[in-house]
Amino acid sequence: MTISTNILSSIGNTPLVELRQVVPNGCARVLVKLESQNPTGSMKDRMALAVIKGAISDGRLSQGGTVVEYTGGSTGTSLAFVCAAIGYPITIVTSDAFSLEKRDHMRALGANVIELPSEGGRTTKELIQRMIAKADELSAAPTAFYADQFNNPDAASGYGALATEMWEQSGHQVDAFVQSIGTAQCITGVAGVLRDKNPNIRIVAVEPSESPVLSGGAPGAHKIEGVGPGFVPPIWKPDLADEICQVSTDEAKEMTRRLAKEEALFAGTSTGANVIAALQMAARLDAGKTVGTILCDTGLKYLSTDLYTVD
User: Fold this and answer.
1) For residue range 256-288, what is the model confidence (pLDDT) as tens digits?
2) What is the pLDDT of residues 282-299, one digit of tens each?
3) Closest by alpha carbon to 66, among 168, 138, 159, 172?
4) 205 has pLDDT over 80
5) What's the pLDDT at 59?
6) From start to end of the chain, where are the E strands?
7) What angle do CA 62, 67, 70 make, to 5 degrees?
8) Are 301 and 268 in contact (CB under 8 A)?
9) Fold of 7-37+155-302
10) Would you tell me which CATH number, out of the four given (3.30.390.50, 3.40.50.720, 1.20.1600.10, 3.40.50.1100), belongs to the domain 44-146?
11) Is the pLDDT of residue 305 over 70?
12) Nearest CA to 194 among 182, 207, 178?
């Protein structure tokens, strides 16, 4: 081991583990990329670094400029982390719909955090649109750089290394990849790399069953943080995924709790949704096949919520 002089170098190279207890006999193996091992405990560290480096390199973010972003929490925390490491101020628009830990983490990293009220702590289309509108308003300042995660061209590239790592760690065998959809930047970046490695791979997008917009349904309220914004993400393309799996908030929470108790994997609700969809795919594939998915973030971000409430 060596001493690092830059905390940003600790992003990536996360472990890949095989699920043992929650996968039924006769199914394909299910591998989970532990993105909770990134510095802020989230896969979004990869995206945040790519976004800030890209903006600095082409002059969109100049010395003395301020980063502005809307977020459900993890993106804001990751951007605040990168900004703290490099030395840029950041203003973040978020909401009480997202965990207190995320909001406190952003503030601890030096971010100016603006919170908008939610509808009973649930993620809705109207809430996300209000957050975006507020960030858009703030981004009009002369020195502001608007990260705009739904539309930023650098965001998807941040996940290319994740895909390469998964491919190498799996022994060059990933027959299906499963990921829940928020901005669709992660699935875009990962699918592009994995399809180059394996043209026959199946890509599965996951969305809340309460808000099945990718499937052509109506938007609705749910409590799977970080995914299901209630509208089709701007970068989403119909051919991005081979199929779409719907998972309810209750199902995702139940699986997230099982992962902690049975696999010792401590994660957030979107990870539970990922694993449910991955198990469904694994049941359809031969035992010799491999399904890859992502543990999106650490369960430490959700201790103030009802996710890990002990009866």
Assistant:
1) 999 999 999 999 999 999 999 999 999 999 899
2) 999 989 999 999 999 999
3) 138
4) yes
5) 95
6) 16-18, 29-34, 66-70, 90-95, 112-116, 144-146, 176-180, 202-208, 243-247, 290-295
7) 155
8) yes
9) Rossmann fold (3.40.50)
10) 3.40.50.1100
11) yes
12) 178
How far apart are alpha carbons 123 and 7 in whole angstroms?
A: 32
pLDDT computed for residue 60 by the predictor: 96
Q: Which residues are part of the catalytic machinery?
A: 44, 270
What SS3 class is residue 52?
helix
Domain 44-146 in the same topology as domain 7-37+155-302: yes
**In the beta sheet, which residues pair with residue 178?**
204
The token duo for 252 is 């995702």
- Whether 172 and 139 have beta carbons less than 8 Å apart is answered as no
Contact 267, 275 (CB under 8 A): no
What does pTM read for this prediction? 0.95
Q: For residues 179 and 247, what is the distance between their CA atoms, to the nearest angstrom?
A: 12
Strand ranges for 253-289 from DSSP E: none
3-state SS assignment for residue 148:
coil
Report the alpha-carbon distance of residue 13 to residue 165 in Å, rounded.
7
**Domain ranges across the chain:** 7-37+155-302, 44-146
Q: pLDDT (tens digit, 9 = 90+) per residue, 235-255?
A: 999 999 999 999 999 999 999
The answer to whether 45 touches 80, Cβ cutoff 8 Å, is no
Q: Which helix (H) or strand (E) holds 46?
A: helix 44-57
Instruction: Answer yes or no: are the C-beta atoms of 263 and 62 closer than 8 Å.
Output: no
Distance CA 31, CA 75 (A): 24
